[in-house]
Amino acid sequence: MALRPFLGDHLSQTGKAADELRDVILCIAQAGIQIQAALRKTDTGLSGTQNQFGEEQVKLDIVSDDIIQKHLKESGLVASFISEEQKDVIELSSTAPYSVVYDPLDGSSLVDVNFAVGSIFGIYRGAELIGKKPKQQVAALYVLYGPRTLLVYCTGNGVHEFILNDTGEFILLRKFLKVSDTAKNFAPGNLSSIMDDKPYHDVFHAWLKDKMTLRYSGCMVADIHHILSKGQGVFTYPAGSKYPDGKLRLVFECGPFAYLMEHAGGAASDGTGDIMDKKITDIDQRTPIIIGSKKEVERVCDLLS
Ligand code: FDP
Fold it and tell me: How many CB atoms are closer than 10 A to CB 93?
């Protein structure tokens, strides 16, 4: 049996990543390995602090953020970064080649019930982030901490899935993940809003009428991974009365996932336009999102409009 490539080799050969971009991703992968170790042993309780958006931070949010910051700083390749857990853009070096946006621990409220959680990253060239669009990312990746630790990356040449083996290396699991145009699974965020939002109610009933299957965990990384892994599905978090602009963040969540989904053949819309074309105006920018199989994304957008 042929040996499975290591992440570093794959990034150079199949991902065609420049050496410096490969090194940034390898640093992030090392941070992911440390976070999965921290998840096994760190107290899951609240830290007593809030993040920049006033949300309670669990200890693991802070631990994960510290681990990632340390790795980005040590790489010497990061000009600036924005973390979901920090208020401002952190500038490191105006001459370094890349900037990184990340959510250190998405779905952290699910840690204590032992559901899967994940870290999300987008990488841009240069020091400036405000004013850019997600389509200008040069790479996006996530690490999913579940029963197994997986890393999925794209540097513009396909979406590839790696697994952390028992000697602490990410090795290739599947290459060139593809998402089909039609969906059998649905993952509906903010479902309670269908009670006062007729179009979303109609979408939900269309899914039930088509006998589609519900797959929703409450962690966006796990729910999007479900689509990429099964090769079909749709995830929605539309705007509603509780969240007039949507709840999920363009910079750290929707932007990186839109990049990965489009490179796997799927689509990501805010209901009227492509997420990849939305300009970043603010760190805390929210957006509605409909992401997954292309035809299903189109159908949901039509019903919501
Ligand atoms: P969480 O607040 O638990 O970190 O990013 C936010 C997020 O999780 C996503 O991972 C998830 O898809 C969404 O919020 C879930 O929101 P609801 O609790 O409103 O369903």
Answer: 13
> Looking at residues 255-284, what average pLDDT do you find?
97
- In ligand 1, the atom with minimum distance to the C-alpha of 84 is 5
Cβ–ligand 1 contact at 188 (below 6 Å): no
Ligand 1 pocket test: pick from 56, 112, 247 the residue with the most ligand atoms within 8 Å of its Cβ: 247
Q: The pTM is what?
A: 0.95
| Closest CA to ligand 1's atom 4 | 107
248 lines ligand 1 (CB under 6 A): yes
Determine the distance separating the centroid of ligand 1 and the alpha carbon of 198, expressed in angstroms.
22
**66-124 residue pLDDT tens:** 999 999 999 999 999 999 988 899 999 989 999 999 999 999 889 989 999 999 999 99
Closest CA to 146 of 84, 85, 221: 221
* Ligand 1 atom nearest residue 249's Cα: 5
By the 8 A CB rule, do 99 and 129 touch? yes
Ligand 1 neighbour 106 (Cβ under 6 A): yes
Domains of the chain with bracketed CATH? 7-174 (3.30.540.10), 185-304 (3.40.190.80)
Place of tokens 């028992």: 166
